[in-house]
Amino acid sequence: MSDETEEKTTLYTVPPVTRAIKVLRHVGAGHGCINISQTSKTLEINRTTLIRLLKTLAEERMIEWVDDTRGYALGVGLLGLAAEALSNRDILRAARPRLAALAKRTHLSAHLGVLDGREVVYLLREVPEARLVSNVREGTRLPAHATTMGRMLLAHLSEAELFALYAGKAMPEYSAVTATSPEDLHRQLLEDRARGIVWSDENFEPMIGSCACPVRDHAGKVIASINLSGPNAEFSRGSEQAEQNAAAIRACAVEISEALGWRAP
């Protein structure tokens, strides 16, 4: 690197951003930053600055507090920012071609999302060649309690985890079906989990319906959800078309899960 190039690189470097990235890399390497003073010395970052960085990164869901023993770990929020870069991850690599086939077969938009706190983050989007398609983009965040993928993911949390997540938090109402209290949401999720599929009849967006199913990893843990969305008539419960869509998305969720090593009991 020439002296001129090095000077320009230094000139355009933003120190606060560099420090934040240094913290992320440190946490990603398995260091939980439990001992702030020690971490401050290791990273050569002022103790007060480090505390502020950790708080900001946690609020932005780039990192998350695990417990007093392990400290911080990288947060799911990174997935939303890095959706494209994550295309080589197992789940996205397994899901993308299968979602594309699902969208083509059903003529509906297909998505994959993961849970990040009280939001569902869209990581994959496949659309058919049709006039009315989803306008949701990869990286989009939507309220989990009011959306099909979000509800399916919430349905696989424990009761304690669910109530801790929503205790004292606002739960905006998007339709008459939206649960606006942790108690109502819990009752709704019990039914969702029992069915193994979540339906939306204009529950979140006018004229748009959807359905969602869970995706499991090799250990059987629900790690993501996929959905189909499109004209509301396609999801009229009990209709032949809705049943066909349900069968298609269930089969796709199983295929993705099996590609990740899951086997039905």
TrEMBL record:
Molecular-function annotations in GO: DNA binding; DNA-binding transcription factor activity
The segment(s) forming the IclR-ED domain are: 77-262
What the entry lists under InterPro entries is as follows: GAF-like_dom_sf (IPR029016), HTH_MetabolicPath_Reg (IPR050707), Tscrpt_reg_IclR_C (IPR014757), Tscrpt_reg_IclR_N (IPR005471), WH-like_DNA-bd_sf (IPR036388), WH_DNA-bd_sf (IPR036390)
Does the keyword RNA-binding belong to this entry?
no
Record's keyword terms, sorted = DNA-binding, Transcription, Transcription regulation
PROSITE patterns, per the entry: HTH_ICLR (PS51077), ICLR_ED (PS51078)
Pfam families given in the database record: HTH_IclR, IclR_C
Q: Where is the HTH iclR-type domain?
A: 14-76
**Matching SUPFAM superfamilies:** GAF domain-like, Winged helix' DNA-binding domain
Single GO BP term: negative regulation of DNA-templated transcription
| PANTHER family associated with the record | HELIX-TURN-HELIX TRANSCRIPTIONAL REGULATOR, ICLR FAMILY, HTH-TYPE TRANSCRIPTIONAL REGULATOR RV1719
Q: Kindly provide the name given to this protein in its UniProt entry.
A: Helix-turn-helix domain-containing protein
Organism expressing this protein natively: Pseudooceanicola spongiae
